[in-house]
Amino acid sequence: MQELHDAPLAPLTTFRLGGPATRLITATTDAEVVAAVREADDAGTPLLIIGGGSNLVIGDKGFEGTALRIATRGFDLSGTALELAAGETWTDAVARTVEAGLAGIECLAGIPGSAGATPIQNVGAYGQEVSSTITEVVAYDRTTRETLTLTNAECAFSYRHSRFKEHPERYVVLRVRFALEDADGLSAPLKYAETARALGVEPGDRVPAATARRTVLELRAGKGMVLDPADHDTWSAGSFFTNPILDDAQLAAFLARVSERLGPDVAPPAFPAGDGRTKTSAAWLIDRAGFTKGYGAGPARISTKHTLALTNRGDATTEDLLALAREVVAGVREAFGITLVNEPVTVGVSL
C-alpha cells in the first residue's frame, strides 16, 4: 500500500475539486483494502472510499481522516461470466466485453469511474442498468467484519439506488460479477429511443455490439459526458441530479404547474417507473426553469452541451459549484414544485 499525508484529493475526482485528506492510502489488492478499512475502523478514524472519483463532491476543506483509493485490478472473463475487481476502469471493461463479442453492458460505454461504483448507484444509461446483468457483488461488511457475497436480489437494486447506497458506511465493494449474453456479436435489444434513432433502427432491434458502443460514445461526447482533460464541459460528475419519480398526487400537482407556467398544450416527459409512479426528466425541468446550457457567470456553470451537468470551468471551488446547484434546485422548486436530488455523493458539504 502507498500512504501519503496531507494529500490532495481534487486530482482524484472528475470535478477536480476539494481539499486534501489527512491521509491517503492506495490499495492494490482486496486484502489491502480490507486491512485499511479495518485499521481505520479499529482506530475510529473517519474513512472515505475513492474509486474513479466520478461521483464525488468533496468540500474545500478536504477530509479529516483516511481516504482509501481502491486501485485493485482484475478482469476475468469465462464464457459469458465476467468478474471485475472494484478498481477496474469501467469504460475499459465495457470495451473489452464488446471486443469479446458479448452483449449486456455495451450501452454503458463511456461512463467514467470504477467497476466497484457501478452497483452502488445501479449505474444506467441509454436503456441499460448494471442491475440487469449483475449476478453477485463481493463486499466487505464493516459491521460484521466479514467479506460477503451478495446475490442480485440481496443488492436491492432500484433506480440509481441499492443496498450499498442505502447503507453507505457499511459496505465496501471488492468485486462485481456479471452474466453477459453471447448474441453472435450483436447488442442486447435496444431500449432507448435516442440510441435507436441514431442507429436508424427501431427500439427492440439488435445491432452489432461494437456499433452500439461506438454510437453511445458519440452521443455521450456530444453532451460532454466522455472525459476529456481539454474540455471543461467534462469537468463534472455527469448528471448532477437524478430524474424525479412522482406518485399520482405529485404528478397531478406537477402537471398543473406545467400548464399554468407553460400552457395547457405543453406535455413534460413522462415514463412509467413502476408501482404506479412516473419518472420525469431533470434536464427538462432545469431547462424550462430558465437554466439553459452554459448558464452561469462564475467559474462553475451548467455545461454548454447538457443542462444536467454542472461543471468546473477550470478555477472553481466546491462552494462555487454548490452555489450553482442550490440556485438550480431553488429555481426548479419555485417553477414546478419539485425538489431535485443530487446524484453525486457529497463529502463534508451538502446542498
Automatic annotation (TrEMBL):
Keywords: Cell cycle, Cell division, Cell shape, Cell wall biogenesis/degradation, Cytoplasm, FAD, Flavoprotein, NADP, Oxidoreductase, Peptidoglycan synthesis. GO terms for cellular component: cytosol. Pfam families: FAD_binding_4, MurB_C. GO terms for biological process: cell division; cell wall organization; peptidoglycan biosynthetic process; regulation of cell shape. It is found in: Cytoplasm. It catalyses: UDP-N-acetyl-alpha-D-muramate + NADP(+) = UDP-N-acetyl-3-O-(1-carboxyvinyl)-alpha-D-glucosamine + NADPH + H(+). Pathway: Cell wall biogenesis; peptidoglycan biosynthesis. The active site is at R160, S239, E343. Its EC number is 1.3.1.98. InterPro entries: FAD-bd_PCMH, FAD-bd_PCMH-like_sf, FAD-bd_PCMH_sub1, FAD-bd_PCMH_sub2, MurB, MurB_C, MurB_C_sf, Oxid_FAD_bind_N. Its cofactor is FAD. One of its GO terms (molecular function) is FAD binding. Residues 17-183 form the FAD-binding PCMH-type domain. PANTHER family: UDP-N-ACETYLENOLPYRUVOYLGLUCOSAMINE REDUCTASE (PTHR21071). Belongs to the MurB family. Cell wall formation. This is UDP-N-acetylenolpyruvoylglucosamine reductase. The gene is murB.
